[in-house]
Fold this protein.
Amino acid sequence: MAGKSSVGDVSERSLLASVMSDASPVLLDTAPDYNTTQPYALVDERPIDRSKPTGPVEKLRIFGTGLSKAFNVEIDRGTAFVLIPVFLGLGIILYFAMPGEPAAWPVFLAPICLLPFVLFLRSMPTLRLLMFAVFLVSSGIALAKLETWRAQTKVLGSEISTNLTGSVVSIERMSSGRVRLTLDVLETSRPTLRYAPDRARVSARTVPDAIRIGSSVAGYVRLMPPSGPVRPNSYDFSFESYFDGIGASGFFLSEPKLMPESAGSFSIWNAAENARNAIADRIRKKIGGPEGEIAAALVVGVRAGIPEEINEAMRRTGIYHVISISGLHMALVAGTIMVALRTIFAFFPSFSSRRPVKKYSAFIALFSIASYLFISGGEVAAQRSFIMLAVMLIAVMFDRAALSMRNLAISAMIVIAISPHEVVGPSFQMSFAATAALIGAYAAWSDYRSRRRGSPPERSPSAFRFISRQAVVFLVGLAATSIIAGLATTVYGAFHFQRVSPLTLAANLAAMPFVSAIVMPFGVIAAVAMPFNLDGPFLYIMGWGLTMMIEISVWFSERSPIDAVGLIPIFSVLAITIALVFATMMTTRIRLLAIPFAVAGVLTLPAAQTPDILISEDGRLVGVVLENERLAINRAKPNAFTIDNWKRALNAENLMAPISKQKNSTAEDQSLKKDPHSTASDRGSNGLAQFAGKPFDCSNSACVSTHRSGALIAHVSDSKAAQPFCEKAAVIVIEDATAQYPCSDDGPLIVGKRELAQYGSAAIFLGKSYDDLVGETPRPRAVLQFAISKPYRPWHTQRAFSREARGLAPYQRPDNSKRRNLSPGTKSSPGSVID
């Protein structure tokens, strides 16, 4: 019996040694030496070679062996499950990045054909995992295609005025005093729209006092299609409107009238919306000022009334995440409920010792955040946060780890299945990146603490020392959370918004204690006390906390440096995303692969090519980059949103307004007025260098500017006004959809209003210097890039039906028209949106 036991021990030891050794395996005797007192002995008397491998082939073999072992460990630990949303998201990104809409049958057939390989390749695990990854990518493409097909949003093709009757879906009172209504379109008349949108978002100066969600209103409105990106590779409003079901936007030309036969149709959703508005009005009256607007945003998600200067201050300081109902708010609500319930249960020790009060608290907290989601309007960010927190609370109820990467993966998969298009948006990317980084950091900290549990315990500290330590732990945890989440989301914020918050850490450290300890807890208590009319004192304390938060954000905003960072290349975003996946989701040394990707992403951040000229999609606004971070524009009162986006993208803080010829007084400007398209030789030995970087000089039919390279840029009203610039201009923008090409084939780059209507806003890249010539013409190379390409995706198909896209002039109403209530477009042409 003893001998058999020894043989078994030796076999196990041999197997263990062969698995654990890498460079020089130690062979163990498979038959024990009974003449010794040892249960087993070494029999290979050759000297053990402990030297490091020197050959590249040997190093590569050892590296591959170690990588294979680490890969197997990752599979055993369930990392493949955590990566499911990553590959689904990759498929969704590939779908939306396609230049054209793919056919339905190959998109839906691909995952079906790949599924048998995933199910039956059990004998080849590596190939099976590879096929599973391809299956997930194809499934992501299919999910995105299915959502696009399911949306089928009817989008208005051209601007038009019409009498509209609609059912009120939402009411938003903006800080400017206007009221924005979202309407389900019931009827249009004079003219009747042949392809009317199902839902439109319109604003009005005033609305009837008795208006409610579900009420029917009517009025004369000006409707417009959703706008496209303000520049190539920027936020696409038509994309978001398509998936939100919004087919048109505009404004009332007359005060909307409440239909007398409709006081509001009843439904659970309408009742909830009306309750939201009533709660928001109550909070505004109780607190007042911008604090009341922010409190309404935190409690019921109504944030349209927050003054823009407060919004901007919070954006510059990185505190704006407090406004949008997301994971922070859900966690604070659930935490407040659980702490309160656990405290109450503590007063009943007999009951608490016999019952799982922690599970009871988690269940009630889950019900509370579900109610919070419902009453707050159920925005996408709130839905995502609710799903994530609900998974964690359910895990608590079933004695599982609440904060784990697996729960985050489940949440991501649910969100992806519900709204695939959110994957390409900043909200999804920043939210899950921050959460993944925090979970990964928390796991590393937990491992560190578990290794220290063997150290001798400290003696019980005094009360003062205990409180001081807890305060320090709270502040350190808050700082660590801000740093980790900030580092994980910075690249996405910079890519989507071209801005960062340099003082975000200091601002969050100063403001978040008020939000976490005062604003949200007292907001929860006020919401509970509101049905009993006891919410006044709690709302007052909540308002005081918001006052402190606003003052902190304004103080830091006034001292914050410029937050514009310019354009970020997509390669950097992809590289840093891969690094984040390796660093947060891997558990072995494979996570070290994050380092080269992170380094590559950081080193390529300055590699983005910045446009020299930007043109709006309506052809009315042109921006030219000048030296010293200046941006010249051709309109004295441009669209504020467009200009703000251009300034951040071009990293141009100073705006140069156009000047009229009457105001030019310098000799150089007088020379430019006389002949704005003169050649370099006509202007002396310095050429155009002395005129480089001039703001727009405008007359009735043309605006002329010179790029910092010396290239001449002209914005004209029609073809006739463009002809004098054909010889020497580098770029001519013609604000006329009917204009013909006025110059020769080797002439300047000409961008017409018809092209802009078809392909959206444009960016132009010029040669590095004026000496970068094309042929014999003293003209720099000009590369044109549009925001939209053909064939159109479903959210862009409406662009083909505007008058400008069809090369038609704006509609002119005849002088003898008697139908004065009819809108432009009454006399339709092929493709018109009216009968």
